[in-house]
Write a structure and sequence with these properties.
The protein contains 14 helices and twelve strands. The chain is of the alpha/beta class. The longest helix is centred in the N-terminal third of the chain and has 18 residues.
């Protein structure tokens, strides 16, 4: 059984409201560790304790005053958890959904999520594929790690699911540029729509080389964690689009900013997630999706499929064909199951 790591931040106001935030530090993405993320969240949280704001403008001013610090820049997952807890707290206190802090009306009210197929044994794959087919998923992402076995794997999945789903692949940086190009040529008859992070995150030249092939779109994931990364790739035309993930990109507000910046420069975006996210980040992703135009691919809401038990009382998942709608309720629209949290969580900081 595999394990996932995350931090949960709970913000409380003096008038009884509570806000939730989650961060998922991943060493291979942002070079964060769980202990370092926890330590950073505690230090950041101390700066926000006993601070006041009256409206959205005041909250954003407060968050802006903290967000530019090196500690925040170096710990995007920690900041994501703290910022999200503040946003959830404020939206809950105003009895409005979190997305309403940023717009009067949503850009999207309905969403279509992708299925994601990890690297599985044939036995596990044969159990998993009928579920995806029965749900008639429109979008499917497949993880690959080698050339020959990857081609066989994707071919097997295409044969099982048929020609209808939009099939894309994600190598998590496992290939060289030449191998990625060879994979694209070999997969031509399979029908692949895009290639996410074909080469190592630092191999920007290789990513550009694969992009210039022009056969299918390339998506920068680990190679794009912040605005500086995005600007560099935009300037050099080093990819076709970007995978925006709330925790990776340093929180809700920065993710929205990155999304708009990419679209304004002619690039598309995928709204992604980290493996093992609970319902807290899944809800945040849904609220962000409500504000993002031209979503190419949407991921998230997998807690019910991947976690032994979610810490949220509400099930933030999708239904048939990956469909889901706006979340009801105030703030993020989720509450914590204290029994599950006590089972899996550990209190490591209390600023009260």
């Amino acid at each position: 059984m595999q394990q996932s790591e995350a931090i949960l931040v709970i913000a409380e106001s003096d008038n009884g409201f509570t806000g939730l935030g989650e961060g998922t530090p991943r060493q291979y993405v942002t070079e964060e560790s769980l202990p370092g993320c926890v330590d950073a969240a505690i230090k950041i949280g101390r700066q926000l304790t006993n601070r006041e704001w009256d409206d959205s403008f005041g909250l954003n001013q407060l968050l802006d005053s903290v967000s530019m610090q090196p500690l925040v820049q170096q710990n995007p997952s920690a900041w994501c958890a703290v910022e999200l807890a503040c946003l959830d707290l404020f939206a809950t206190s105003r009895q409005i959904p979190l997305w309403r802090l940023f717009a009067d009306t949503p850009v999207n009210e309905y969403f279509t999520h992708s299925a994601v197929i990890p690297l599985l044994s044939t036995r596990s794959l044969d159990t998993f594929l009928p579920v995806i087919k029965s749900m008639d998923m429109e979008f499917v992402k497949v993880k690959v790690s080698t050339l020959q076995e990857g081609i066989k794997y994707v071919s097997y999945i295409r044969a099982a699911l048929g020609p209808k789903p939009d099939l894309r692949i994600d190598a998590n940086g496992a290939f060289s540029a030449n191998t990625a190009i060879e994979f694209i040529h070999a997969a031509d008859s399979i029908g692949i729509s895009s290639f996410e992070q074909p080469v190592a995150k630092e191999n920007l030249g290789g990513l550009k080389q694969v992009t210039e092939l022009g056969t299918i779109a390339t998506i920068a994931d680990e190679s794009m964690c912040n605005m500086s990364d995005m600007d560099n790739l935009i300037r050099n035309r080093g990819c076709s689009g970007f995978n925006v993930r709330v925790s990776k990109c340093g929180g809700f507000r920065e993710s929205l900013k990155l999304w708009k910046h990419a679209l304004n420069n002619g690039f598309f975006c995928q709204l992604g997630c980290h493996v093992g996210e609970t319902g807290v980040l899944a809800a945040a992703g849904r609220h962000l999706a409500a504000l993002c135009s031209k979503i190419r691919y949407l991921e998230g809401g997998y807690a019910g499929f991947t976690l032994e038990s979610d810490i949220c009382n509400e099930e933030i998942s999708f239904g048939y064909q990956g469909k889901a709608g706006l979340l009801d309720g105030s703030g993020l629209g989720v509450t914590i199951n204290s029994e599950v949290l006590d089972k899996w969580g550990k209190l490591v900081g209390d600023l009260s």
